[in-house]
Amino acid sequence: MLRVESLQVRYGAIAAVKGVDIAVRRGELVAVLGANGAGKSSTLLAIAGALKVASGRIFLEGEDVASLTPERIVRKGIAMVPETRNVFADLTVTENLRLGAFIHRHDKRRTSAAIDEVMALFTVLGERADQAAGTLSGGEQQQLVIARALVSDPKILLLDEPSLGLAPTIVAKIFGLIEKLRERGMTILLVEQNAAQALKCADRAYVFSLGEVAASGSASEIASNTDLEAIYLGK
């Protein structure tokens, strides 16, 4: 579904991503782990078109999308949920979801069906459909931004730190929803610092260190064989 080859991303003179190669097969949940500054989020932003690619290629179903604008990348089938968890605070839950479906804005039936589907999956959003998004709890806002990405009907969903800043009980709920999406056949590339939680639901994983892939393999292989502490903390 997704193949990234020799990806490099730079912030001026600083190389944030240094020749990364990753692949995600259709229906897989692949985790990207690593410490802060390892290049995880920069990789996702580059795939989504929000950061310029210095070099390398990004293929979606065999088509190189590295030079496309973010809007065209969404239309091709890549949707990203950034770690910032931004909602349109003064708009209702339903209005936020409609904005997520902007690429289908000329097809009202498709938009309504997509919103109904995510509200059935994220039941709390259906209960708060007419509530201002800014009044939702952190966990509810996280569900909203995931749902907002899903209404664009993506082929692959990019999730950046969905557990960030949430209480453990809410984290468990968010990961339960992620597993539901996986069971429904959604292809997911997940960036997450909570390695233990991510590896429980992932098929495979990559571990980043200083902008490079330090280890890769099945989730069970990474969990059992990789010295995550050394990669995270430099020990």
Radius of gyration: 17 Å
Assembly context of the chains: single chain
Looking at the structure, the CATH topology of the largest domain is Rossmann fold
Percent strand equals 25-35%
**Average pLDDT for all residues:** 92
Side by side, the strands of the main sheet go 6-7-8-3-9-10
Low-confidence stretches: none
Q: State the end-to-end CA separation.
A: 35 Å
Number of E strands: 10
Can you tell me the CATH architecture of the largest domain? 3-Layer(aba) Sandwich
Morphology: globular
- Our count of domains comes out at 2
Helix content: 25-40%
Topology:
Layout: E1 2-11, E2 14-24, E3 29-34, H1 40-47, E4 55-60, E5 63-64, H2 70-76, E6 78-81, H3 93-100, H4 108-121, H5 123-127, H6 138-150, E7 156-160, H7 168-183, E8 187-191, H8 195-201, E9 204-209, E10 212-218, H9 219-225, H10 228-233
Helix pairs in contact: 3-6, 8-9
Could you describe the 3D structure shown?
The protein is of the alpha/beta class and 235 residues long. The chain folds into two domains: 1-77 and 157-164 and 186-235, Rossmann fold (3-Layer(aba) Sandwich), CATH 3.40.50.300; 84-153, no CATH class. Helices cover 39% and strands 26% of the residues. The protein has ten helices and ten strands. The protein has helices spanning 40-47, 70-76, 93-100, 108-121, 123-127, 138-150, 168-183, 195-201, 219-225, 228-233, and strands spanning 2-11, 14-24, 29-34, 55-60, 63-64, 78-81, 156-160, 187-191, 204-209, 212-218. It has a six-stranded mixed beta sheet with strand order 6-7-8-3-9-10, sandwiched between helices. A four-stranded antiparallel beta sheet has the order 2-1-4-5, with helices on one face. Strand 4 and strand 5 form a beta hairpin. The longest helix is centred in the C-terminal third of the chain and has 16 residues, at 168-183. The termini are far apart.
